[in-house]
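Record type: ASSEMBLY
Status: queued
Input:
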Amino acid sequence: MNSRPETLSEQDTPQTPAPGVGWEEFSRELVEFFASIKLAMFLFLFIAITATIGTVIQQGERAETYIQEYGEDAYRWFLRLGFTDVYHTWWFTGLLGLLCVNSLTCFYKRFPAVWRSMKQDKVSVSLAFIKGMKQQAEVVVPGTKESIAQQLAQHYVGKGYRVLAKNEAGEVTLYATKGVMGRVGAHMAHLSATVIVLGGLLGSYYGFQEFGVCLEGQTYHIPRGNFDLKVDKFWIDYHENGAVKSYNSTLTVLESGETKITKTITVNDPLVYKGIWFYQSSYGDAWDQIEVARVNIKDKQTEKVVKTIDLEWQKEQTLSDLNLKLAMTDFVADFAFNSTEKKVYSKTIEHANPAIKLTVNERSTVQATPWIFYQFPDLFEIKDSKYQFELIGYKPKKYTGLQIAKNPGINIVWIGCTMIVVGITLSSFIYHRRLWTKIIPSGASGVTVHVGGTTHKSQIDFQKEFRKLTEKIRTLEA
Amino acid sequence: MARSLFLFDMTFWLYLASLTLYVAYLFARRPAMAFAPAGHPAEDFDERDGAWATQLGQVATLVTVFGWMVNTAALLTRAFERLEHSGTFAPWSNQFEAMAYVSWAIILGYVLLELRYKIKAIGAFVVGIGFIAMGAASLLPYRYQTAEPLVPALNSYWIYIHVSVTLTSYAAFAMAGGLGVMYLFKERAEQRGSRSRFYAAFPDLETIDELGYKAIMIGFPMLAFGIILGAMWANYAWGGYWSWDPKETWSLIVWLIYGAYIHARMTRGWEGRRAAIYAVFGFLMVIFCFWGVNFLLSGLHAYA
Ligand code: HEM
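Status: finished
Output:
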């Protein structure tokens, strides 16, 4: 048992105010303001309230959407206040920044006291101090002050308390404490907010997120990583009832032609190479390519279908019996024509008005490249041809949607997250308890034990513990 | 499927029975001296109860524990059904299962609380919430109650842990909400000077207040952990750990609301009545986050 006189109190000792409104006073006021719990409560609630905005108003939509739903005046206000992208406005970011400053200042102001109480704590207290506590008791037991103190101290140590003692002429004072880690945990949580925000900032400045629409068999250059990505295969698995079970892409990373890594990714199982993550994000029907087109060949005179053929993408088929060579050379999902550039393109990615381009070679004399429409079979006619071509169906080519992302701040974010969870958990389940005991000789062969204690929370458990403690003291004897 | 649905049904009726018993326990005759002297330890409730009350209380506890075991069996059965049909284990993969799981967690929490503090009066409030959760689940249309396979984005081992942790934190907040309501009841009775035997079974205000605080101190780190697990999952599945999707934003909002609460308690005047009202308000926000968001707002989590 070591005895050390109390030198530090938990409360900051009041400083004599500097005359006038000096820098010192100003900075003290500033720390006071930023370390205040009131500000923290205000920030917690204000961030909560403003965060609801973005869950009610759709974020990042086009202007027309808002005007249609809320009217033009409201939209103008939305723009002014940033309601169409709340979470990236200067004021919302500012609130998060303030929360960081707030919790850092709190740490700065209060942690030193917690730290000191881990090293050294208040032993000397007055009898009045003990008697003034909410949990306090007074028990007379036989024995000398030293032997009772010895037994009590052992009891405290057995219960996991750290004990400091001070033996004076007329009395012994014991101080027992436990669970300061709960408070350390709270302060760990206070630091974590800033760590998370820093990690987030790092990620948003030095990271990127892109979406790639990729087709099977193609190779794509990833400039940010200076390597190539080849999509070897893409397929979809189904449940028995036809619902999609999973979708998967086999990807190969190539660096100057050399295979580095091959992996089949699926939702929830990405590929990571050189810090760049490739996620299976979505899939869909390509809008500029299909796999197979089914075409009816009609005789113009008899109006009868003479043959139905399946044309594969950009593969010529020879039909010697009809004296025909056919190929499907192009496809658009939603036909549109740009008259200035004289180019056909797909207006949207929906298969709203699909069309294929045929290359027809008939009897080596008639040559044509007509667009054949799925929805308008009679739109085009090849003049000198014997035949009419109709697109009656096709098998779309699936693209795989890859999310490509790099986030150099992510590990810092995870460190902050660990701190917050560990910190809050510590502070929830461990509470700081302190017991002061004064043992004063009284009567002929006995001592009076005055014991009092505080906890900064969990009063009822502490009450129970305290009751047991007083019962224990009653049983002590010399 | 039928087997687990039968068990869920049975759970519902058992919880109804146990709620009824706890309410009956409150109304049972007990010696009039019963009001605990202010500030005195709230133990030995058994001694204050009359014979009827004691017996009712014991039966209520037994029925609750049995109901909870049936609830457990229902969830396990559903887990095996899921394994057969949809390749996951987690019996909290749609709104119905999530509700059944939340009531399981609430009742478990309550049983532990009763074991530790022996205060049966709380049952009328907290088992009540567990019962309502189970009841609301049974009211969902049949097509929500079946174990349909999950969409690929949700089919991952992350769902085991992210969802269960988050739902357990909701249960803790439900407990705090129930205790808040109880506090307000008791406080009104005291203010009116009521000596009705109904309130005699209640613990003193300070105990109710402390227990409510404890429940929130369990829910708060759990929700933090749940949100973070969600962020890790999102990072793994979609390539971004935070996308301000309505559900994740709302769980953050709920977390912030409780964050304000725990800090408020350190300042004067935020115990007792105000804290009780706040806990009820917080629980309403949890309900919105759990139900409202799925049905009223759109986003990745609106899978129900
Ligand atoms: C950023 C998010 C924050 C989190 C996650 C957080 C978390 C916590 C937790 C879990 C506790 C322990 C509560 C208890 O023991 O009952 C705590 C205590 C405390 N918090 Fe925070 N807090 C945050 C921000 C702030 C801010 C901005 C302030 C500004 C004043 C603040 C001031 C305090 C104080 C003074 C304590 C008591 C510390 C002690 O016991 O020594 N907190 N906080």
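Annotation: The CA atoms of residues 79 and 305 of chain A lie 60 Å apart.
Annotation: Residues 1-15 of chain A have pLDDT under 50 and may be disordered.
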